[in-house]
């Protein structure tokens, strides 16, 4: 999961850089093409103005009337020196009366100063048309669409390229865990059996207690790896479980581990509360939460375990007073470890997440660095 996050992050960075590299020239190309289109339109207006002037120059005063040139997509008119129309086909209120080319919104017009008293008393010729950048937009959109396809293709390429090392590393780690399973089970069983036999024949001592606690930590890691390997191909049948009794048994199991750090586990457990769940999956949830609470608690501290029913739901809270969690969002990700010096593979809480997601169990994590963490599980209750 963490590898996927890193690969996605780097892929996003490279995709963003490529996008900037490709889109920046497109932006300037768009501005350039608009300017070119506007210049071309100005030349068209000048061309039409020259046609009108030429027609007026060729007009013979002896002719009965002057046929003013008309164009399909252009409007024009003759104006006096105060810009009052002498003759105009322009249905538009002009705001800027100054020689030259002007653009207002989607309207473009050219004002040409005429020789005084030469063309029907007109001082100015104005030629106007609608300025449309539709062809420019069409070209830019086509290029943009091509760039988007290219960026999408490159983003997939970058994502796959950056993901490969992480995928290879995760695969190697998974293979290592699978291979280790066969080597751990037998010696771990021998250790546990011999510790139990020794304790039956001799007075328990702190050395045996430490060995027993260490073997339980190893057993919990082994159970996590065993579940991780087998959970996809096994069917976990559910049953009604007395949660308070089950919880007390697991706390008793970890009592020796807590004792090694002189941690006191305080219980506030409401009795006769049932949940419908597979025992092995419930054990993974509770064992991993308790194991982490002990692992990351300060020595000579405590762990508060509370279980109660409220509004047809069961609330299980396991709260420690330890180092806390810096990155709560990542704590449930596989192979993520906040403190590499604490040992473990970083798979326990990812197993918890996979189980609670499947069983619709809500998990609320409250944590403050250097103060402690609380894992609050909300189960659906079963009425007797």
UniProtKB/TrEMBL annotation:
<keyword id="KW-0812">Transmembrane</keyword>
<feature type="domain" description="Histidine kinase">
    <location>
        <begin position="179"/>
        <end position="383"/>
    </location>
</feature>
<dbReference type="Pfam" id="PF02518">
    <property type="entry name" value="HATPase_c"/>
</dbReference>
<dbReference type="GO" id="GO:0005886">
    <property type="term" value="C:plasma membrane"/>
</dbReference>
<dbReference type="GO" id="GO:0016036">
    <property type="term" value="P:cellular response to phosphate starvation"/>
</dbReference>
<keyword id="KW-1133">Transmembrane helix</keyword>
<dbReference type="InterPro" id="IPR003594">
    <property type="entry name" value="HATPase_dom"/>
</dbReference>
<dbReference type="InterPro" id="IPR036097">
    <property type="entry name" value="HisK_dim/P_sf"/>
</dbReference>
<dbReference type="GO" id="GO:0000155">
    <property type="term" value="F:phosphorelay sensor kinase activity"/>
</dbReference>
<keyword id="KW-0902">Two-component regulatory system</keyword>
<dbReference type="InterPro" id="IPR036890">
    <property type="entry name" value="HATPase_C_sf"/>
</dbReference>
<protein>
    <recommendedName>
        <fullName>histidine kinase</fullName>
        <ecNumber>2.7.13.3</ecNumber>
    </recommendedName>
</protein>
<dbReference type="GO" id="GO:0004721">
    <property type="term" value="F:phosphoprotein phosphatase activity"/>
</dbReference>
<dbReference type="InterPro" id="IPR003661">
    <property type="entry name" value="HisK_dim/P_dom"/>
</dbReference>
<feature type="transmembrane region" description="Helical">
    <location>
        <begin position="12"/>
        <end position="32"/>
    </location>
</feature>
<dbReference type="InterPro" id="IPR050351">
    <property type="entry name" value="BphY/WalK/GraS-like"/>
</dbReference>
<keyword id="KW-0808">Transferase</keyword>
<dbReference type="InterPro" id="IPR005467">
    <property type="entry name" value="His_kinase_dom"/>
</dbReference>
<keyword id="KW-0418">Kinase</keyword>
<feature type="transmembrane region" description="Helical">
    <location>
        <begin position="140"/>
        <end position="159"/>
    </location>
</feature>
<keyword id="KW-0597">Phosphoprotein</keyword>
<keyword id="KW-0472">Membrane</keyword>
């Amino acid at each position: 999961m963490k590898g996927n996050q890193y690969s996605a992050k780097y892929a996003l960075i490279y995709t963003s850089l490529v996008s900037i590299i490709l889109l920046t020239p497109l932006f300037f190309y768009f501005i350039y093409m608009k300017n070119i289109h506007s210049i071309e339109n100005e030349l068209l207006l000048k061309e039409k103005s020259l046609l009108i002037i030429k027609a007026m120059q060729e007009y013979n005063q002896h002719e009965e009337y002057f046929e003013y040139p008309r164009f399909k997509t252009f409007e024009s008119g003759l104006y006096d020196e105060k810009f009052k129309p002498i003759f105009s086909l322009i249905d538009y209120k002009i705001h800027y009366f100054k020689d030259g080319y002007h653009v207002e919104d989607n309207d473009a017009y050219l004002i040409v100063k005429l020789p005084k008293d030469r063309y029907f008393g007109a001082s100015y010729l104005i030629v106007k048309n609608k300025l449309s950048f539709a062809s420019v937009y069409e070209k830019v959109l086509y290029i943009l669409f091509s760039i988007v396809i290219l960026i999408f293709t490159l983003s997939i390429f970058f994502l796959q390229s950056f993901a490969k090392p992480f995928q290879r590393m995760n695969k190697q780690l998974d293979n290592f865990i699978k291979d280790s399973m066969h080597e751990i089970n037998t010696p771990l069983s021998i250790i546990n059996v011999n510790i139990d036999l020794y304790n039956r024949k001799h007075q328990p001592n702190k050395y045996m207690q430490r060995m027993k606690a260490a073997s339980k930590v190893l057993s919990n890691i082994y159970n996590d790896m065993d579940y991780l390997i087998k959970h996809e191909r096994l069917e976990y049948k559910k049953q009604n479980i007395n949660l308070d009794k089950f919880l007390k048994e697991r706390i008793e199991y970890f009592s020796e581990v807590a004792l090694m750090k002189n941690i006191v586990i305080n219980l506030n457990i409401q009795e006769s509360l049932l949940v419908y769940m597979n025992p092995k999956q419930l054990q993974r949830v509770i064992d991993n939460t308790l194991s982490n609470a002990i692992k990351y608690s300060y020595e000579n501290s405590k762990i508060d375990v509370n279980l109660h029913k409220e509004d047809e739901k069961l609330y299980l809270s396991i709260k420690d007073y330890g180092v806390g969690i810096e990155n709560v969002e990542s704590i449930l990700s596989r192979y993520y470890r906040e403190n590499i010096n604490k040992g473990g593979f970083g798979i326990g809480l990812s197993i918890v997440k996979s189980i609670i997601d499947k069983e619709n169990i809500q998990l609320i994590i409250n944590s403050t660095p250097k103060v402690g963490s609380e894992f609050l599980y909300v189960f659906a209750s079963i009425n007797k």
